[in-house]
Every structure is written in C-alpha cells, then in structure tokens.
Amino acid sequence: MQIIRELRDEDPRHMSLRTMEKETGISRSRLDDLFHERMGSPSLQEFVTLCMLFHQRASACLEEAMKNTGQSHGEIIDAARAYEARERQNQITDDLVEPRFEDLSPLDLAASRDMNRDMESEIPDE
C-alpha cells in the first residue's frame, strides 16, 4: 500500500476519500483503512482498481513493491499462496462455527429470533 499511498500523494488531483469512493466503488472507510494500513491488505481487485485510478499498471506497481521488499517473484508467490490457504482454512472454520441463516427453514429462523422463545417453551401445552 505504500506505493499506492505515494501515487495518491503525487497525484495532481488531490482526491479526497469521498471522491475516490465515487470513482472506485470502494467504501470511504475501507479506503481509509487501506491508506492507514489497518484491517489487512487490499484485495487484488482493490489493488488493481486503485492502480487504475492513479493511471498506473498494476504489474508495474507490483514490480516496484518487489524491488522495495527485496523479495524474489517466487517468494512473493509462495507467500501469497500461503496467505490464500490460511484464508480458505479460516473460511472453512467460520462456516462450521457460525450459524448460516440462509440454511434455516422460515420456522427455525423465526424461532432463532424470538425473544420469548425460552419463556414460551416452559409453558405447558393445554
């Protein structure tokens, strides 16, 4: 993101986050997080979109980033693959742990949101 931040600083348009949001479709809060290096790295789509916004080829920006880090192409690819594998594993874990409301029937979904569910279950049927 350092390279993108430098492109933004050098850009003669001096765009605000609000303007960048309109131009890219990336939310203002996400842009703020990216430029302040919070909440993770940009997705590939976000990176390419920001490069295009500043009239740069994404490949040129990636090559510059590789030069700055001193990493070889293979090392970066290996790190990206390891990151993707961790993200896939986290998604699998999230899917197993978190309830998926779209998988519930309407009756179960209503029951899961019913604040009186426990009280009503203790009332004997007549």
What does this entry look like structurally?
The chain has 126 residues and is mostly helical. Helix content is 68%, strand content 0%. It is built from 8 helices and no strands. The model has no long low-confidence stretch (mean pLDDT 80).
Topology at a glance:
Layout: H1 2-10, H2 17-24, H3 28-35, H4 44-53, H5 58-69, H6 73-97, H7 106-113, H8 117-122
* Tally of individual helices: 8
Largest sheet: none
The N- to C-terminal Cα distance equals 66 Å
Please compute the radius of gyration using only Cα atoms. Answer: 23 Å
Order of helices and strands: HHHHHHHH
Low-confidence stretches: none
* Structure summary, number of beta strands: 0
**What percent of residues adopt helix (DSSP H or I)?**
55-70%
Instruction: Determine the mean pLDDT.
Output: 80
Tell me the fraction of residues in β-strands, as a range: under 5%
Coarse morphology:
elongated
Secondary structure category: mainly alpha
List keywords for this structure.
single chain; mainly alpha; 126 residues
Describe, in short, the structure shown.
By secondary structure, the chain is mainly alpha-helical. The protein is 68% helix and 0% strand.
